[in-house]
């Protein structure tokens, strides 16, 4: 299975950090390959979109399958699939963002915690009910932050 | 960018259909590579998880960048990134499911609209507020169904 970038993230967020949840307000741009501009038509009608991207800075020598959630040691080690660490067998990121504007092949979005230069793999419209779970619960060790 | 399957979907959903939204109640299993079982530890504390998978049946000769949403011609053609068609430049699927049970390397989930045999690429915990958008809106042409 091989992937091709459909675009690239342009952001002031330049370095990995454990504080990604603080990025809910950051405004960034997604520059889509101009040859794919037509595939964006109609997206501007949605308030939110889902960005699937490649975590290109996620290179780790460490092969362990557990980590501390958000760098917090208190809850103990958790499996990589139980946390949102970029250190994953397949370094795929998924973030729900607010779509502020589409200008041709450029999407201006809010809340994208992808590092500048991240290859974008897919853009999907956010569909309430399908993408959300109104009754979702998380374990006590998850700090939902602000 | 290359991917490796971390597991496989086992489901009674065997053929592609435009009626995926009707699959909210289907129960399926995700069989994760036993070598990665440790990476699932802690996931059982979440009520919902996000499944990222490969749309392995999504092979199209047609190279057009637009399609009819959910096979419905009434709204006209929309860009591939504005709909949830499996026909995407990178055939990556993303579904939020209810996690019913984890038994070792097997996740029993509800609402997974991936076809039987789909390679699974990633499992992420669903985090309300981060993955959801309470004020999200969609265009009139999106039929949210039931």
What would you say this structure looks like, in words?
The structure is a homodimer of 146-residue chains. Chain A has 146 residues and is mainly β. Chain A is 0% helix and 31% strand. A six-stranded antiparallel barrel of chain A has the order 1-2-7-6-3-8. Chain A has a two-stranded antiparallel sheet with strand order 4-5. Chain A is globular and about 45 Å long. The N and C termini of chain A lie far apart (38 Å). The model of chain A has no long low-confidence stretch (mean pLDDT 91). Chains A and B meet through strand 3, strand 5, strand 6 and strand 8 of A and strand 3, strand 5, strand 6 and strand 8 of B.
Radius of gyration of chain A: 16 Å
Helix content of chain A: under 10%
Seen as an oligomer or otherwise, the chain set is homodimer
Strand tally of chain A is 8
Count of separate DSSP helical elements of chain A: 0
Binned strand content of chain A: 25-35%
Order of helices and strands of chain A: EEEEEEEE
């Amino acid at each position: 299975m091989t992937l091709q970038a459909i675009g690239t993230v342009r952001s002031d967020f330049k370095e990995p950090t454990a504080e990604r949840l603080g990025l809910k307000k950051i405004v960034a741009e997604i520059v889509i390959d101009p040859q794919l501009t037509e595939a964006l038509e109609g997206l501007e009608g949605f308030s939110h979109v889902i960005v699937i991207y490649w975590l290109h800075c996620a290179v780790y020598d460490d092969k362990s399958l557990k980590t501390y959630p958000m760098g917090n040691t208190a809850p103990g080690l958790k499996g990589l699939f139980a946390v949102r660490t970029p250190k994953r067998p397949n370094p795929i990121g998924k973030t729900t963002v607010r779509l502020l504007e589409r200008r041709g092949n450029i999407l201006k979005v809010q809340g994208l915690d992808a590092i500048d230069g991240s290859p974008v793999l897919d853009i999907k419209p956010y569909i309430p009910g399908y993408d959300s779970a109104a009754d979702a619960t998380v374990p006590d060790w998850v700090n939902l932050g602000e």
